[in-house]
Amino acid sequence: MNAMMKLQKVLVIGAGFVGSSLATSLRSEGVQVCCTRRQEGGEGTVQFVLEEEGGEGTVQFVLEEEETWGNLPKEVDGVVWTLPARPLSQVQRLYDAYLHSILDSKKPVIVYGSTSRYQVEEVHQWVDEKTKKIQKEGSREEGEDFLQEKGATVLVLAGIWGESKNGQSRQPKSWFEKGYIKNVDKFLNLAHVDDIVKVTLKVIRRHSETRGQAINVCDGNPMLWRDIIVHGFGLELPPETEDQTAASSRPYISRRVQNNLLQSIMGKDYKFKTIIDPKK
């Protein structure tokens, strides 16, 4: 396989916030994209249907129903799996039924993971790809590890923010204003949706260099929520937040995620989008 892979057809399993933006970018470059997306089923159930550009309508693909897996496209140049890879037994069956032929042919399979996988034992601990992972039965990490061992690349995503091509928005300022932030002395690690798409495209095209690796995807600029709220957004901390912080006798344990490996892949001159300019 050439170092820079030419893509003609890619399957995106889960065309949600990031997947929809990835599909748009691929199509803008002339790549045929097949996507699964959420569709409301009968009695409030949620299914996934497969949309193939140029095809007539959609065909059924339900992750929990193995009889629908045969509807996945047989010939693709790569697969990007954006959904949580769980439960392990189901991931293993889908591998046997579909993914193994793609990986065996040295074509890329990219799986999105989460930085919550890392076990932290120290206050504001720095973590990288070698940090010990949380071992929990039934977790998405079990499926990610299984696929990584088979040759998939796991992109370990930090907090996703930005404007997606499916019309959704995820903004840290909104998270704070809606009251989602309960501890301001916690570090926030972020990855902008546009950066995630660019990283995915880079990795999928140079998969021979990253095959079987886990790669942290973040801007490399972890910041305390306290600093983001006050200095970034120019807002005041709620009085109850100040009181709770002052009354706490135990510091909050959070993680700070390093992106050294990612920076080496993207190039030293690549600039990730940040919620606040770290130089200010």
Please tell me about this protein's structure.
This protein is of the alpha/beta class and 280 residues long. The chain has a domain at 9-166 and 190-218: Rossmann fold, CATH 3.40.50. 31% of the residues lie in helices and 23% in strands. It has an 8-stranded mixed β-sheet, with helices on both faces. Helix 2 runs parallel beside helix 3 (140-149). It is globular and about 55 Å long. Residues 42-48 and 53-57 have low confidence and may be disordered.
Q: What's the overall average pLDDT, rounded?
A: 86
Strand content: 15-25%
What is the CATH fold-level name of the domain at 9-166 and 190-218?
Rossmann fold
Oligomer: single chain
Shape: globular
The CATH homologous superfamily name of the domain at 9-166 and 190-218 equals NAD(P)-binding Rossmann-like Domain
CATH architecture grouping of the domain at 9-166 and 190-218: 3-Layer(aba) Sandwich
Produce a short descriptive summary.
31% of the residues lie in helices and 23% in strands. It is built from 9 helices and 15 strands. The strands form 4 sheets. An 8-stranded mixed beta sheet has the order 4-3-2-1-5-6-8-13, sandwiched between helices. The protein has a 3-stranded mixed beta sheet with strand order 10-9-12. Strands 7-15 form a two-stranded parallel sheet.
Descriptors for this entry?
alpha/beta, 15 strands, 280 residues, Rossmann fold, 9 helices, eight-stranded mixed β-sheet
Chain-wise SSE layout:
Layout: E1 9-13, H1 17-28, E2 32-40, E3 46-52, E4 58-61, E5 78-81, H2 88-104, E6 109-114, E7 125-127, H3 140-149, E8 153-157, E9 159-163, E10 169-170, H4 172-177, E11 187-188, E12 190-192, H5 193-205, H6 207-210, E13 214-217, E14 223-224, H7 225-232, H8 239-247, E15 255-257, H9 260-266
Parallel strand pairs: 1-2, 1-5, 5-6, 6-8, 7-15, 8-13, 9-12
Antiparallel strand pairs: 2-3, 3-4, 9-10, 11-14
Helix pairs in contact: 1-5, 2-3
